[in-house]
Specification:
CATH topology: Metallo-beta-lactamase, Chain A
Radius of gyration: 18 Å
Structural class: alpha/beta
Strand content: 15-25%
Order of helices and strands: EHEEHEHEHHEEEEEHEHHEHEE
CATH class: Alpha Beta
Bound molecules: D-malate, manganese (II) ion, zinc ion
Shape: globular
Distance between the termini: 5 Å
Number of strands: 14
CATH architecture: 4-Layer Sandwich
Largest sheet: 7 strands, mixed
């Protein structure tokens, strides 16, 4: 299985256009060893030609341009992206759909019923896109059951609900439903290799722990180092968990859990620009290195 990290940053990217935090300031001035990152998305394939895109970030145009495997190869209009699976309906994961409006083939979009509703009401991308190209919506399960996708059928996809919140614009923002956010197991049928992908993970419920234990590689929520990172940076009072993200450090944090996981590769994604792990010389980054936990970056390729 081939996995390409198209964007490893959280909403806003790194640096964020209006942010003057310790990290954003230093990456702009060159005062820190760190890579810039676009917003959260990956692509997965078993043959290197037919790709499943996870999330469509606002930075998708640059991300696809930087990735030759999906460039057009046959005829006047073509792409290696055969389908799109949405993890949630957040702006950083869906806005890029608008940039795919030139598609001559229908956009094959896999998402939960809750995400479909959000993208038909609060952020009506589906209705807007219909004026440019056809959209085929395929509902995905929230109970962990598996399905496959035409043209990418060596990959078996299992989707399960995660505890989270719908986006601020959603009509059910204050009324959480299973399927507002999902975690995904991607299994390559021909090799049995498994990836677990969850860029937004607030709580490691038993079914999540099980899926992570069974995976050869986990690619999970790396948004915040600390619970109070946003308030420490003087940005806002929201805690990591209020935003549906489990911080890496501290008791019950992501590192503690990953230390018990058997996966060959443990990788963080969806890293917020305030997170000290972006600084490759920081003590927090050293802690991850010692634990064998990697920090993904734009253009990273993972072969399983
Ligand atoms: C999140 O996952 O919390 C987002 O990155 C927020 C956003 O995109 O505004
Ligand atoms: Mn996000
Ligand atoms: Zn910043």
């Amino acid at each position: 299985m081939k996995i390409r990290v198209l964007g490893a940053g959280a909403g806003g990217g790194f640096p964020q256009w209006n942010c003057n935090c310790h990290n954003c300031k230093r990456v702009r001035s060159g005062a820190m060893r760190a890579k810039r990152r676009t917003q959260s998305s990956i692509a997965v394939s078993s043959d290197g030609n037919h790709w499943l895109l996870f999330n469509a970030s606002p930075d998708i145009r640059t991300q696809l341009e930087a990735f030759p495997d999906v460039h057009p190869k046959h005829g006047i209009r073509d792409s290696g992206i055969k389908a799109i699976l949405l993890i949630d309906s957040q702006i950083d994961h869906t806005t890029g759909l608008l940039m795919l409006r030139e598609s001559t083939l229908p956009l094959e979009i896999y998402c939960t019923e809750m995400v479909r509703q959000d993208l038909s009401t609060g952020f009506p991308l589906f209705g807007m896109l219909e004026h440019y190209c056809k959209v085929n919506h395929h509902p995905v399960p929230v109970d962990g059951s598996g399905f496959s996708i035409p043209l990418i059928d060596d990959l078996r996809i299992h989707t399960h609900a995660l505890k989270s919140k719908a986006p601020p614009y959603s009509p059910h923002r204050h009324d959480p439903h299973p399927g507002d956010n999902i975690g995904v197991v991607i299994e390559q049928v021909s090799t049995g290799q498994k990836l677990y992908y969850a860029p937004g993970l607030g709580e490691i419920e038993p079914h999540v722990a099980q899926a992570m234990q069974d995976a050869d590689c986990v690619l999970v929520d790396g948004t915040f180092w600390r619970h109070d990172e946003m308030s420490q940076a003087g940005i806002c009072d929201k805690l990591a968990l209020d935003m549906g993200h489990l911080p890496q450090s501290g008791e019950g944090g992501m590192i503690e859990f990953l230390n018990t996981a058997k996966a060959r590769r443990k990788i963080l994604i969806h890293i917020n620009n305030t997170n000290p792990i972006l600084d490759e010389d920081s003590p927090e980054r050293m802690t991850l290195d010692e634990a064998g936990i990697e920090v993904s970056f734009d253009g990273m390729e993972i072969n399983l």
